[in-house]
Amino acid sequence: MRHSQRSPVLGIDPHLIMVFELGASVSTDEFRRSDLRIVDSSDDRLMIAFADDRELTAFSSRLDALIGGVPEGKKSEPYAQFFDAIENIRPLEARDRVTPDLAAAINDAAETELRIDIECWHPGDPEQARDWIDEVRQGIASAGGRVADTLINDSVRLLLLRAYVPRDSVIDIAELDVIARMDVLPQPVLPMPTLYSLSADELGEVMAPDDRSAIVGLIDSGVASGHPLIGTAVLASDAIGTGIEEDQDQHGHGTMVASLLLYGDLQEAIASGRPLQPSCRLVSARVLDSRNQFPVDELWEKDLQEAMTWCADHGAKIINLSLGDDRSPYSPPRQLSAAAIVDDLARRLGVVAVVATGNSRPADYLTEINSSSARDYPTALIQDDATGILDPGTSILGLTVGGLTTAVASGAYSGQETLQRQPMGDPDWPSPITRKGPGPGQAIKPELSELAGTLGIERGTLVSRDAELGVIGAKAGVGGLLGWDVGTSYAAPLISRVAAAVAARFPDFSGELIRSLVLISAERIPFTDHLEGGDAARQQAERALLGYGRPSITRACESTSHRAVLVAEANVPINGVHIYEIPVPSSFSSSGGKRGLDIALAYSPPTRIRRLDYMASGMEFHVVKGLPLDEVENIFADSEEDAIATLSQLGSNRVELDPKVTARSRGANQLGRKVFHRRLDHSDSPMFLVVRNINRWDDDGFEQSYALAVALWRDVDQPELHAELRQKLEVVVEIPAEIEIEA
Asked: Are 270 and 345 members of one domain?
């Protein structure tokens, strides 16, 4: 009724916006078929849609079909799954316009005035658009705030304001119908001039790393051992190859990489006022010259091999490789040469290699640069043939790292506000300088992502030299202790930092188990809702640019009351199967909220660069529910040729993980997730994890080592599970029970 009373407009009429509260995930294609446009989604439970049709004809006809009952010959009403997932339909409210970050800032009693960006709907009429901007401006003024800048782009239907608003008035302003979204901007922990002019004395005390911390090998341009943030952590350094004689950093790249590895977010660390302590110890192998290039007259693969071996000989369990050969973006199917060296040494030395994807150039893959490029670039990045991962980022055993954007908006640290310069992407989108997967054999690459910085667009021109959009780290040479840059080189050490934390916490864990725990800590970073195509295409885009997501030290190293992590290591024979029982907590059977299962597997098979099947064996895992152990054993005793038939036998007893086994099993670093939106019952028990090793060209007598990490989790407002699982595991002699089957 509300819709039919509205008059049509060329763009979006905010009064025709509806909020769908969902109880289960619904494909966005279902909304499109109902003539509803998804204009925003705060998560998979809240979809905000706009209807061009005031009468909602398509939506109403679907509803009528549902009400008409079950058609003859059918098992359920038409569109039942779509409508069953919808718990409530309501108008857009102020709370929907406020991002979670802004909501948290409103509740922060320390802030009296907030710096926010406001996006308005665009009506399609330029004159009316300016009226709407004025309406918001007046509302902010009446609340005692002020507007610092505005941006109106009628071509891409973009209306933005940057404003300073009293904390207590934000929700009142959010009541304005013309507002689509409000987000808080970062308040600098240190103003930019202060940050870049810090002296060694102003840094405060810099401690030596703990003797029990992990040793990380850094293969780069060397490090500036005299830098006050770096020197205490360097155990050894050397120059590798005849073309480089000095082990100290003459470029600055390696020093910045080292600082991110040692401290993570330097701004937060410095602003805290506490003594600074590196999180790990370093051994530095310099292989790049003063121009950050490999020596011209040497095989860089040879220097890389020598450097990795040197790092391992000096105690490194983790090796960071923030380097790449920009002459060789990956083009399937053959593996690249340096990546093959990394794979061989990672397996033989038992180390964890963390490798950057390498950098791309938006100027090369964008056909034109305009304001819409700030949001459309991921599609162009994926479609361009020259944006594949650089060697050695295609390492199948290494953890490959893509880049994320850093800034909410340009101006986060400057004194002069401007909306003319648009940062490319939203926070935690793929950085425009990152590169795309997949890797060899269509393996998911990169597996992980971290902050790499972004670029800006101003008046149709790319802006790359903007300190406000980059990553801040230690600077080598004169002119201050800190600097900034943009690149996936700076994402990789943030992942190495997570791996080093795991190695320090669990010094006896293998490299494979460290990789599994880093993987299991990754959280998805959905960014593709605005991309064209169906859900499958958007999921593929997410995996190609961000992999499994962004890991964290806490999730990699700790269990909580609502999230328990179980681990296992074993050797499985060729064409062998191991079966583990998953101890399902009782809270999975209680109603309300969500419950989930995450499984990570890492293994290190022999590799051969000249084989189309690059890995000697292929491992995969499955989750089976509601079948007795002997039946599961019999089903998975089938040979490799009957693998498809094996899975078809499971039917509804197979728990489908995301991504599917056909996608995740192509790599040596695998992660599968399942969110259960309904409570489990007796038909879901018992639950087994089945690990299978399929021979490709390995010796029949070889046993493949592997590691598993399994996380069971529950919503924090639901019953705890950790204590129960711990009690279950303590009373069993060997958990999980392992069964070995040879085909």
From this structure: yes
Question: What pLDDT does residue 362 have?
Answer: 95
Strands 234-239 and 281-286: parallel
What are the φ/ψ torsions at residue 262 (nearest 5 degrees)? Answer: -80, -35
Same domain? For 241 and 300 the reply is: yes
Structure tokens belonging to residue 237: 């350094």
Instruction: Name every residue whose Cβ is closer than 8 Å to that of residue 730 and which is 6 or more positions away in sequence.
Output: none
Structural domain ending residue among the three candidates 524, 546, 568: 546
Residue 410: the pLDDT is: 42
Domain final residue pick, 74, 92, 110: 92
Size (the chain), residues: 743
Q: Report the distance separating Cα 336 and Cα 445, nearest Å.
A: 14
Give the pair of three-digit tokens for residue 262. Answer: 């040692």
Q: Which domain holds residue 676?
A: 559-742
Split the chain (743 residues) into runs of 10 and give each run's mean pLDDT.
37 67 75 72 61 70 81 79 80 83 84 86 86 91 89 79 90 88 72 69 87 97 94 95 85 95 87 88 92 76 93 98 87 88 96 97 93 90 95 97 77 52 87 96 97 90 84 83 92 98 97 98 87 83 96 95 95 93 93 93 93 90 94 78 68 92 96 94 93 88 94 92 84 38 37
Beta bridge partners of 49: 18, 38
User: What is the C-alpha separation between 265 and 604, in angstroms, rounded?
Assistant: 32
Beta bridge partners of 216: 282, 318
Burial bucket for residue 190 (CB in 10 Å: 0-12, 13-18, 19+): middle
Q: How many domains does the chain have?
A: 4
Tally of helices (H runs) and strands (E runs) in the chain: 23, 31
The Cα 706–Cα 577 span in angstroms is 12
Is there a contact between 350 and 510 (Cβ–Cβ < 8 Å)? yes
Q: Does 342 lie in the same domain as 325?
A: yes
Asked if residue 126 and residue 80 are part of one domain, the reply reads no
Predicted confidence at residue 189, as pLDDT, reads 56
* Phi, psi (rounded to 5 degrees) for 182: -130, 135
Q: Helix or strand or coil: residue 533?
A: coil
What is the distance in angstroms between the CA of the first residue and the CA of the last residue of the chain?
65
pTM of the model: 0.81
> How much is the pLDDT for 644?
63
Contact present, 584 and 684 (Cβ < 8 Å): yes
Q: Are residues 270 and 404 in the same domain?
A: yes
Tokens standing for residue 583:
């101890």
The answer to whether residue 369 sits within a structural domain is yes
Read out DSSP for 8-45?
P-SS--GGGEEEEEESS---HHHHHHTTEEEEEEEETT
Residue 553 lies in a domain: no
Residue 30 lies in a domain: yes
